[in-house]
Amino acid sequence: MNIDVFWQANRKFIIGLFGGMIAFFIALSIVAGPATDRFAAAERSVNKTKRSNSSTSQYSVSQVRELEQTLAQLDADVDALTTAALPPFRKRFQIPMGVAAASHYIALTGELRDELIGWALRHNVHVDESLGLPSVSPSQPLAIEQHLRALDVIDRVVHLAIDNGASEIDKIRISQQRRVRSGRRSSPLLITPLSLEITFQRVSVTPFLRTIMLEQQKGNSLGVVSLEVLPPNQKKGEQRIVIEFEIGVFPQATQELE
């Protein structure tokens, strides 16, 4: 086909077609240009976020599991150290599961007063009838546990003292609980101070002191922080010992059990 003849015959159509194509690409660049820019900006933002997340993600799944295992082991170590360092808390004095703390406290203190003081009287030994307990029973579970722990130590010491010839256990005092402080730092351990006086009449105090030391060595700590042997009273033939204890508990562990 002769190109000149084709051009002459279809010139208007060809010019219109090329004009339409040019207009289409111009319109496309106007409409698609900003959209492309926005897409590119969004893509850059996503990539930046991915890089940021990857840089801030410090632990893998396996590392998280390992950290959780380490934390569980540390908790177990704390329990073991607590058991070794603090006076043992015998089952009878612990608050049973499903029993209200206040109910257990009232029932146990009533029973123990009758048992312990009655047993002491049968051995001709006077024991402070208050056992150091407050006239108004504590109502909060943590305060109740603190007094029960102190009562556990009192019961053990009274038995040890009478078994070694004591004639009187008096001035039993359970003081207000406090936290241990080291400089500006406060320990999580909550301490309840306890003190009492033991009288030995015409009997040496040495067997009792030896027994206290043996209890410590056997891991049955009584929490003794001070022990003072007072000068003997020659007229009465007696000698007194003043002992101070510190009974501790971790409040967090107690609250988790509530």
- The helix/strand series, from N terminus to C terminus, equals HHHEHEEEHEEH
The main β sheet shows up as: 6 strands, mixed
* Approximate strand percentage: 15-25%
Number of helices: 6
Q: What is the radius of gyration?
A: 41 Å
Strand count: 6
Number of domains: 2
Portion in helices? 55-70%
Give the helix/strand class: alpha+beta
CATH architecture name of the largest domain: 2-Layer Sandwich
Mean pLDDT equals 78
What can you tell me about this protein's structure?
About 55% of the residues lie in helices and about 20% in strands. By secondary structure, the chain is an alpha+beta fold. Strands 1, 2, 3, 4, 5 and 6 form a 6-stranded mixed sheet that branches. Strand 3 and strand 4 form a beta hairpin. The C terminus is likely disordered.
Care to give the gist of this entry?
The chain is an alpha+beta fold.
Comma- or semicolon-separated keywords:
Heat Shock Protein 90, 6 strands, 258 residues, six-stranded mixed sheet, alpha+beta
Task: Present the secondary structure layout.
Blueprint: H1 3-56, H2 61-85, H3 101-122, E1 126-127, H4 141-163, E2 168-174, E3 178-182, E4 185-201, H5 206-217, E5 224-229, E6 238-249, H6 251-257
